[in-house]
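Work Package 4 report. The design task specified in the project plan requires that, given a folded chain encoded as structure tokens, an amino acid be chosen for each position. We show below one input record used in the internal validation round.
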């Protein structure tokens, strides 16, 4: 079994924000085609905080510890901000610059 060395979540900023962002584990399940603001699952433990981002920038967030502590085959992480200046990222449906996870494993 390979050991996790690092795990970097990369998100492409499409609309800038100066507000600090908190990445948190999501408690409970959800379905993307059924998700609304009112039906969103509760946020669990914070994983990381990052400053806002500038349009065109890639935000890179280390989530290795969250992956190490996760149980099961899935881990859902939410990005939230307390401020009114929202940030937009390219989504998984974007033609380019979709979010991705870079895993480094060691035997």
């Amino acid at each position: 079994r390979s050991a996790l060395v690092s795990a970097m979540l990369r998100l492409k900023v499409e609309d800038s924000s100066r507000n600090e962002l908190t990445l948190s584990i999501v408690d409970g399940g959800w379905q993307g085609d059924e998700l609304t603001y009112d039906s969103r699952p509760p946020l669990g433990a914070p994983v990381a905080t990052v400053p806002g981002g500038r349009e065109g920038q890639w935000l890179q967030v280390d989530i290795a510890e969250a992956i190490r502590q996760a149980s099961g085959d899935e881990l859902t992480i939410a990005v939230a901000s307390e401020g009114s200046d929202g940030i937009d990222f390219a989504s998984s449906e974007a033609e380019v610059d979709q979010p991705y996870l870079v895993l480094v494993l060691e035997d």
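Strands lie at 3-15, 21-26, 43-50, 58-62, 77-81, 88-89, 100-106. Validation will be extended to a larger panel in the next phase.
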